[in-house]
Design a protein that fits this description.
One of its GO terms (cellular component) is GARP complex. This is Vps53 N-terminal domain-containing protein. The chain is mainly alpha-helical. The chain has three domains: 178 residues, no CATH class; 155 residues, Tetracycline Repressor, domain 2; 143 residues, Up-down Bundle (Methane Monooxygenase Hydroxylase, Chain G, domain 1). It has 19 helices and two strands. It has a two-stranded antiparallel ribbon.
Amino acid sequence: MGAQGSSLPFRKSIFDFRNWDVPIITDVREKLENIKQLLKSHPSVREELVTNFCSRELTSYEQKFLGAELTKLDEIQRIYNQINCHIRTNQEIWKIFPASWHVPYGLCIKMCKITRDQVESIMVNMKEKPTVARLLQELKRTLNFELELEMKFGGGVPTKNIGDDIEETVDGENYSPNVSEIHMMYEMKFAANHDLVETQKTGIKDLSDSGGRFNFRGIISSCFEPHLIPYIEEELMQCLEKVVQEETWDIDEENLNNILSSSRELFLAIKKSYDKCKALTKNLTLFKLFKVFQRVLQAYATKLFFKLSTGGTHKQIKVSGIDERVICYIVNSAEYCCKTSGDLAEEVSTIIDPHYADGVDMSEVQDKFSCVITKALMTLVRGLETKFDTEMQEMARVSWGTLESVGDHSQYVNGIYTILKNSVPVLGELLTPVYFQFFLEKLASSLGLRFYANIFRCKKISETGAQQMLLDTQAMEMILLNIPSLDRQTVSAASYSEFVKRQMSRAEAVLKGLTKATQQSILDDFNKHAPRITQPLVAAENPQPVPIPPAPPSEITIRL
């Protein structure tokens, strides 16, 4: 290192021959000035000269890799070392050109383009598939190399010193660079410090200082993008399959949010990839990564949706107490994913390049999870409705036409209350108030329609039977009104009460009509008095129509 340092002033003095006071050198200096004037007046000649010089330099650079088999990511670091070596070896020679020509910068740009093709070749011809962490490590090394070139040619101010990333964290673990990396870092630091000292001594700026117009960002690193994004998507999809496969569909007692572990683990993996990417780039790569997040979350929503489709038909779904808890966990997890995905989109839109900000949107993903929530809640409703089958059959078997007196509400009403008492408190404890009220309203609507339809499945109903059934209807209404108090849930009392009364009013209207007179009694009374009926002189005042219940349909389908 000492020999190389001592030869530097000697080499520099060779190319400062313009200051030598020797006749032959003076003649050469005059010829050089004439050449410079010629080049200024004939730009095409200057371009041809620079092109020929660059072509020769690039040929010399490419020969270093002639016949080399570039199939491993480790070769990338060797390529960067060769560029730095080539710059250090030839930077004094390049200074024979006027600084305004920016020949060194142009040469480095061309070498970087060649290097980009070499790195692309490595990415395509890799024999072993790398991990995402390994690709990110090489991408980070490439970005640092581009930053070093930018610093070298005055294209920007470094945010931190070269070598500060020696103990950088990659994929959650500390890694140390190899010997060649450390050697390169400190050589670059030494060269930068040496140039600074020379500038302070001579008062002459380096030719690379051109007001920050030089930019190397993305000139090599952009080739990683087509390979990195598919790897990340594949890794996240594998993570999705793993967390769903390992899902126990239960929660720990310490989990206050009542959400599935798979949803938390999936977002942890997404956040991990997002944090790595945003530390490296905030342009197209981050935008494409966001699209990957969209696809992964939609796939997770689809898995939750089909989890709800197991067992039963669209009319009847049998659910146990454990199934009800799992469905509630799915509701909460879908709500968590819906909110968190929206927060993610908002954060990405604030840091990404404004050109891509309009495309950062999670509305489709949120719609998917909203569909999961709706289906889950309706599955709970249909599951409870299926539990009422025995009670509805018992109601239809009662001899409503032979009842002699009206007593307390019927036994099937007690059965419905018992079912609700066993299920509703658990659901109210697991669901948020908003979704619990939605569930209650759908349950009241479903039970009210089914009770109304079941009236027409009953056989002949006497006036006493109608009175007893009306009492049962009022008991059912009170049960529905008191459901929220089973779990001490606070719902909108006024709106819910009106909703329940509206659902039960149809059954009450039919039964109140039957309590005044049955169809058979009306017919008997008509036949008894028909012979003595004559043309009335005055129309009856305020005639009261007798409501006649519709004929029982052959099949009643209740759509929710």
